[in-house]
Amino acid sequence: MATETLLVEQRGAVTLVTLNRPQALNALNSQVLADLLTVFAAYDADPTQRCAVLTGSEKAFAAGADIKEMAPQGVGDMFGSNFFAGYDLFTRTRKPVIAAVSGYALGGGCELAMMCDFIIAGDSAKFGQPEIKLGVTPGMGGSQRLARAVGKAKAMEMCLTGRMMDAAEAESAGLVAKVVPAADLLAEALKTAETIAAMPPLAALAVKEQVNVAFETTLQQGILFERRLFHGLFGTEDQKEGMVAFVEKRPGKWVGR
Ligand code: CAA
Protein backbone atom coordinates (compact mmCIF):
# COMPACT_ATOMS: atom_id res chain seq x y z
CA MET A 1 0.00 0.00 0.00
CA ALA A 2 1.17 3.56 -0.62
CA THR A 3 -0.19 7.08 -0.34
CA GLU A 4 1.10 10.10 -2.24
CA THR A 5 3.88 10.68 0.28
CA LEU A 6 4.24 7.45 2.27
CA LEU A 7 5.13 3.83 1.58
CA VAL A 8 3.29 1.41 3.83
CA GLU A 9 4.12 -2.23 4.28
CA GLN A 10 2.80 -4.82 6.70
CA ARG A 11 5.45 -7.29 7.84
CA GLY A 12 3.58 -9.76 9.99
CA ALA A 13 2.22 -7.75 12.92
CA VAL A 14 4.53 -4.78 12.23
CA THR A 15 3.52 -1.83 10.04
CA LEU A 16 6.48 -0.14 8.35
CA VAL A 17 5.77 3.42 7.21
CA THR A 18 8.41 5.18 5.09
CA LEU A 19 8.33 8.92 4.38
CA ASN A 20 8.69 9.18 0.61
CA ARG A 21 9.38 12.71 -0.67
CA PRO A 22 13.07 12.17 -1.58
CA GLN A 23 13.22 15.25 -3.80
CA ALA A 24 12.49 17.42 -0.74
CA LEU A 25 14.42 15.35 1.86
CA ASN A 26 11.02 14.23 3.18
CA ALA A 27 9.97 17.78 4.10
CA LEU A 28 6.63 17.61 5.87
CA ASN A 29 3.95 19.35 3.83
CA SER A 30 0.18 19.24 4.36
CA GLN A 31 -0.10 16.13 2.20
CA VAL A 32 2.37 14.25 4.43
CA LEU A 33 0.29 15.15 7.48
CA ALA A 34 -2.95 14.06 5.79
CA ASP A 35 -1.31 10.79 4.73
CA LEU A 36 0.16 10.15 8.20
CA LEU A 37 -3.27 10.60 9.77
CA THR A 38 -4.88 8.20 7.27
CA VAL A 39 -2.18 5.56 7.62
CA PHE A 40 -1.90 5.66 11.41
CA ALA A 41 -5.69 5.62 11.88
CA ALA A 42 -5.76 2.46 9.72
CA TYR A 43 -2.88 0.99 11.77
CA ASP A 44 -4.73 1.66 15.04
CA ALA A 45 -7.91 0.12 13.66
CA ASP A 46 -6.27 -3.06 12.29
CA PRO A 47 -6.33 -5.81 14.93
CA THR A 48 -3.56 -7.75 13.13
CA GLN A 49 -1.07 -4.88 13.62
CA ARG A 50 0.74 -4.52 16.96
CA CYS A 51 3.68 -2.13 16.44
CA ALA A 52 4.67 0.45 13.81
CA VAL A 53 8.01 1.77 12.61
CA LEU A 54 8.15 5.23 11.03
CA THR A 55 11.28 5.87 9.00
CA GLY A 56 12.68 8.05 6.21
CA SER A 57 15.60 7.69 3.84
CA GLU A 58 19.27 7.11 4.51
CA LYS A 59 19.95 10.84 3.97
CA ALA A 60 16.96 12.25 5.82
CA PHE A 61 14.29 11.10 8.21
CA ALA A 62 12.78 14.51 7.45
CA ALA A 63 14.51 17.87 6.92
CA GLY A 64 11.66 19.79 8.57
CA ALA A 65 8.30 21.25 7.79
CA ASP A 66 8.06 22.23 4.13
CA ILE A 67 9.60 25.71 4.00
CA LYS A 68 8.35 26.29 0.44
CA GLU A 69 4.77 25.63 1.53
CA MET A 70 5.06 27.88 4.59
CA ALA A 71 7.00 30.78 3.05
CA PRO A 72 4.03 32.71 1.56
CA GLN A 73 1.64 32.15 4.47
CA GLY A 74 0.39 35.02 6.61
CA VAL A 75 -0.62 34.96 10.24
CA GLY A 76 -4.29 34.73 9.25
CA ASP A 77 -3.58 31.62 7.16
CA MET A 78 -1.62 29.96 9.95
CA PHE A 79 -3.99 30.87 12.77
CA GLY A 80 -7.12 30.32 10.67
CA SER A 81 -6.08 26.83 9.56
CA ASN A 82 -4.58 26.03 12.98
CA PHE A 83 -1.47 25.01 11.04
CA PHE A 84 0.26 21.87 12.46
CA ALA A 85 -2.64 21.15 14.86
CA GLY A 86 -3.29 17.91 12.97
CA TYR A 87 -0.11 16.47 14.46
CA ASP A 88 -1.94 16.30 17.79
CA LEU A 89 -4.07 13.59 16.17
CA PHE A 90 -0.95 11.68 15.12
CA THR A 91 0.23 11.67 18.76
CA ARG A 92 -3.08 10.09 19.75
CA THR A 93 -2.15 6.86 17.94
CA ARG A 94 -2.87 4.30 20.67
CA LYS A 95 -0.52 1.51 19.58
CA PRO A 96 3.29 1.74 19.81
CA VAL A 97 5.19 3.70 17.16
CA ILE A 98 9.00 3.61 16.87
CA ALA A 99 10.87 6.30 14.91
CA ALA A 100 13.86 4.87 13.01
CA VAL A 101 16.01 7.90 12.21
CA SER A 102 18.85 8.04 9.70
CA GLY A 103 20.41 11.27 8.45
CA TYR A 104 18.68 14.62 9.05
CA ALA A 105 15.87 14.96 11.57
CA LEU A 106 15.56 18.74 11.61
CA GLY A 107 12.79 21.09 12.73
CA GLY A 108 9.51 19.29 12.11
CA GLY A 109 11.50 16.13 11.35
CA CYS A 110 12.99 16.11 14.84
CA GLU A 111 9.56 17.01 16.22
CA LEU A 112 7.85 14.15 14.35
CA ALA A 113 10.47 11.69 15.62
CA MET A 114 9.86 12.94 19.17
CA MET A 115 6.10 12.44 18.72
CA CYS A 116 6.79 8.72 18.29
CA ASP A 117 7.09 6.59 21.42
CA PHE A 118 10.85 6.31 21.16
CA ILE A 119 13.64 6.85 18.66
CA ILE A 120 16.21 4.37 17.40
CA ALA A 121 18.93 6.26 15.53
CA GLY A 122 21.45 5.23 12.92
CA ASP A 123 24.92 6.52 13.70
CA SER A 124 24.56 9.03 10.83
CA ALA A 125 21.52 10.72 12.45
CA LYS A 126 21.57 14.46 13.02
CA PHE A 127 18.91 16.14 15.16
CA GLY A 128 18.21 19.84 15.33
CA GLN A 129 15.67 22.62 15.73
CA PRO A 130 17.07 25.18 13.24
CA GLU A 131 13.85 27.21 12.88
CA ILE A 132 15.47 30.28 14.45
CA LYS A 133 17.58 30.62 11.31
CA LEU A 134 14.33 31.07 9.34
CA GLY A 135 13.01 33.78 11.66
CA VAL A 136 10.61 31.45 13.45
CA THR A 137 10.64 28.88 16.27
CA PRO A 138 9.73 25.23 16.61
CA GLY A 139 6.01 24.91 15.90
CA MET A 140 5.23 21.19 16.12
CA GLY A 141 6.04 20.77 19.80
CA GLY A 142 9.84 20.83 19.60
CA SER A 143 10.46 23.35 22.35
CA GLN A 144 8.32 21.31 24.73
CA ARG A 145 9.29 17.76 23.80
CA LEU A 146 13.02 18.51 23.39
CA ALA A 147 13.09 20.24 26.79
CA ARG A 148 11.42 17.22 28.36
CA ALA A 149 13.78 14.81 26.57
CA VAL A 150 17.16 16.50 27.08
CA GLY A 151 16.51 19.14 29.77
CA LYS A 152 16.43 22.93 29.66
CA ALA A 153 20.11 23.69 29.06
CA LYS A 154 20.56 21.57 25.95
CA ALA A 155 17.08 22.31 24.56
CA MET A 156 17.59 26.05 24.97
CA GLU A 157 21.04 25.89 23.40
CA MET A 158 19.82 23.77 20.47
CA CYS A 159 16.81 26.01 19.73
CA LEU A 160 18.77 29.27 20.16
CA THR A 161 21.77 28.28 18.04
CA GLY A 162 20.02 25.96 15.58
CA ARG A 163 22.98 23.58 15.77
CA MET A 164 22.71 19.88 15.05
CA MET A 165 23.27 17.11 17.58
CA ASP A 166 24.81 13.88 16.34
CA ALA A 167 23.53 10.42 17.23
CA ALA A 168 26.05 9.78 20.02
CA GLU A 169 25.21 13.07 21.74
CA ALA A 170 21.48 12.40 21.24
CA GLU A 171 21.85 9.05 22.98
CA SER A 172 23.84 10.41 25.90
CA ALA A 173 21.36 13.28 26.26
CA GLY A 174 18.38 10.90 26.39
CA LEU A 175 16.78 11.91 23.10
CA VAL A 176 17.16 8.46 21.54
CA ALA A 177 16.75 4.99 23.04
CA LYS A 178 19.71 3.52 21.19
CA VAL A 179 22.16 4.10 18.35
CA VAL A 180 23.01 1.40 15.83
CA PRO A 181 25.19 1.39 12.69
CA ALA A 182 23.25 3.19 9.94
CA ALA A 183 23.32 0.09 7.74
CA ASP A 184 21.55 -1.92 10.45
CA LEU A 185 18.95 0.72 11.38
CA LEU A 186 15.89 -0.74 9.70
CA ALA A 187 16.68 -4.31 10.71
CA GLU A 188 17.23 -3.24 14.34
CA ALA A 189 14.06 -1.13 14.43
CA LEU A 190 12.01 -3.96 12.92
CA LYS A 191 13.51 -6.44 15.39
CA THR A 192 12.53 -4.19 18.29
CA ALA A 193 9.07 -3.72 16.77
CA GLU A 194 8.65 -7.50 16.47
CA THR A 195 9.56 -7.87 20.14
CA ILE A 196 6.88 -5.34 21.07
CA ALA A 197 4.38 -6.88 18.63
CA ALA A 198 4.81 -10.22 20.42
CA MET A 199 3.77 -8.70 23.78
CA PRO A 200 0.20 -8.86 25.11
CA PRO A 201 -1.37 -5.99 23.14
CA LEU A 202 -3.60 -4.55 25.88
CA ALA A 203 -0.61 -4.31 28.22
CA ALA A 204 1.30 -2.50 25.44
CA LEU A 205 -1.51 0.05 25.08
CA ALA A 206 -1.53 0.51 28.85
CA VAL A 207 2.26 1.01 29.05
CA LYS A 208 2.05 3.70 26.36
CA GLU A 209 -0.72 5.54 28.25
CA GLN A 210 1.15 5.26 31.55
CA VAL A 211 4.47 6.60 30.33
CA ASN A 212 2.81 9.42 28.39
CA VAL A 213 0.84 10.47 31.48
CA ALA A 214 4.17 10.94 33.29
CA PHE A 215 4.69 14.06 31.15
CA GLU A 216 1.22 15.46 31.75
CA THR A 217 0.54 15.14 35.45
CA THR A 218 1.86 15.10 39.03
CA LEU A 219 3.76 12.11 40.43
CA GLN A 220 0.90 11.12 42.75
CA GLN A 221 -1.74 11.37 40.00
CA GLY A 222 0.50 9.47 37.60
CA ILE A 223 1.11 6.67 40.10
CA LEU A 224 -2.63 6.40 40.76
CA PHE A 225 -3.32 6.29 36.99
CA GLU A 226 -0.69 3.58 36.59
CA ARG A 227 -2.12 1.52 39.45
CA ARG A 228 -5.68 1.71 38.09
CA LEU A 229 -4.55 0.55 34.63
CA PHE A 230 -2.59 -2.24 36.33
CA HIS A 231 -5.71 -3.25 38.28
CA GLY A 232 -7.80 -3.11 35.09
CA LEU A 233 -5.53 -5.59 33.30
CA PHE A 234 -6.59 -8.23 35.87
CA GLY A 235 -9.90 -8.33 33.98
CA THR A 236 -8.19 -9.56 30.79
CA GLU A 237 -7.64 -13.07 29.49
CA ASP A 238 -4.04 -12.14 28.67
CA GLN A 239 -3.25 -11.50 32.36
CA LYS A 240 -4.60 -14.95 33.32
CA GLU A 241 -2.68 -16.57 30.46
CA GLY A 242 0.52 -14.58 31.12
CA MET A 243 0.73 -15.53 34.80
CA VAL A 244 -0.30 -19.19 34.28
CA ALA A 245 2.20 -19.47 31.40
CA PHE A 246 4.96 -18.18 33.70
CA VAL A 247 4.15 -20.77 36.33
CA GLU A 248 3.96 -23.52 33.70
CA LYS A 249 7.32 -22.33 32.26
CA ARG A 250 6.01 -21.79 28.71
CA PRO A 251 5.54 -18.72 26.50
CA GLY A 252 2.15 -16.99 26.75
CA LYS A 253 -0.36 -16.99 23.91
CA TRP A 254 -2.06 -13.61 23.63
CA VAL A 255 -5.63 -12.98 22.50
CA GLY A 256 -5.78 -9.22 23.11
CA ARG A 257 -8.77 -9.28 25.47
N1 CAA B 1 11.36 22.32 3.17
C1 CAA B 1 11.29 22.31 1.81
N2 CAA B 1 12.25 21.82 1.01
C2 CAA B 1 13.37 21.35 1.61
C3 CAA B 1 13.53 21.34 3.00
C4 CAA B 1 12.46 21.85 3.80
N3 CAA B 1 12.50 21.83 5.14
N4 CAA B 1 14.74 20.82 3.29
C5 CAA B 1 15.32 20.51 2.12
N5 CAA B 1 14.48 20.83 1.09
C6 CAA B 1 14.73 20.68 -0.36
C7 CAA B 1 15.73 21.69 -0.86
O1 CAA B 1 15.10 22.93 -1.11
C8 CAA B 1 16.22 21.01 -2.11
O2 CAA B 1 15.26 21.18 -3.12
P1 CAA B 1 15.72 21.69 -4.59
O3 CAA B 1 16.55 20.53 -5.11
O4 CAA B 1 14.42 21.85 -5.30
O5 CAA B 1 16.52 22.93 -4.39
C9 CAA B 1 16.22 19.53 -1.72
O6 CAA B 1 15.33 19.41 -0.59
C10 CAA B 1 17.59 19.03 -1.27
O7 CAA B 1 18.05 19.88 -0.23
P2 CAA B 1 19.50 20.58 -0.24
O8 CAA B 1 19.95 20.82 -1.64
O9 CAA B 1 19.44 21.76 0.68
O10 CAA B 1 20.37 19.39 0.40
P3 CAA B 1 21.74 19.55 1.19
O11 CAA B 1 22.27 18.17 1.33
O12 CAA B 1 22.61 20.57 0.56
O13 CAA B 1 21.34 20.11 2.66
C11 CAA B 1 20.00 20.23 4.68
C12 CAA B 1 20.57 19.34 3.54
C13 CAA B 1 21.14 20.73 5.58
C14 CAA B 1 19.06 19.36 5.51
C15 CAA B 1 19.25 21.42 4.04
O14 CAA B 1 18.35 20.94 3.06
C16 CAA B 1 18.46 22.23 5.03
O15 CAA B 1 19.03 22.99 5.78
N6 CAA B 1 17.12 22.08 5.04
C17 CAA B 1 16.24 22.87 5.84
C18 CAA B 1 16.33 22.49 7.31
C19 CAA B 1 15.38 23.36 8.12
O16 CAA B 1 15.55 24.54 8.24
N7 CAA B 1 14.35 22.72 8.73
C20 CAA B 1 13.37 23.40 9.53
C21 CAA B 1 12.18 23.78 8.69
S1 CAA B 1 11.02 24.81 9.56
C22 CAA B 1 10.17 23.77 10.56
O17 CAA B 1 10.37 22.58 10.57
C23 CAA B 1 9.13 24.43 11.42
C24 CAA B 1 8.59 23.59 12.53
O18 CAA B 1 8.89 23.71 13.65
C25 CAA B 1 7.66 22.53 12.25
Automatic annotation (TrEMBL):
<dbReference type="InterPro" id="IPR029045">
    <property type="entry name" value="ClpP/crotonase-like_dom_sf"/>
</dbReference>
<comment type="function">
    <text>Could possibly oxidize fatty acids using specific components.</text>
</comment>
<keyword id="KW-0456">Lyase</keyword>
<keyword id="KW-0276">Fatty acid metabolism</keyword>
<dbReference type="GO" id="GO:0006635">
    <property type="term" value="P:fatty acid beta-oxidation"/>
</dbReference>
<dbReference type="InterPro" id="IPR018376">
    <property type="entry name" value="Enoyl-CoA_hyd/isom_CS"/>
</dbReference>
<dbReference type="InterPro" id="IPR001753">
    <property type="entry name" value="Enoyl-CoA_hydra/iso"/>
</dbReference>
<keyword id="KW-0443">Lipid metabolism</keyword>
<dbReference type="Pfam" id="PF00378">
    <property type="entry name" value="ECH_1"/>
</dbReference>
<protein>
    <recommendedName>
        <fullName>enoyl-CoA hydratase</fullName>
        <ecNumber>4.2.1.17</ecNumber>
    </recommendedName>
</protein>
<comment type="similarity">
    <text>Belongs to the enoyl-CoA hydratase/isomerase family.</text>
</comment>
<dbReference type="InterPro" id="IPR014748">
    <property type="entry name" value="Enoyl-CoA_hydra_C"/>
</dbReference>
<dbReference type="GO" id="GO:0004300">
    <property type="term" value="F:enoyl-CoA hydratase activity"/>
</dbReference>
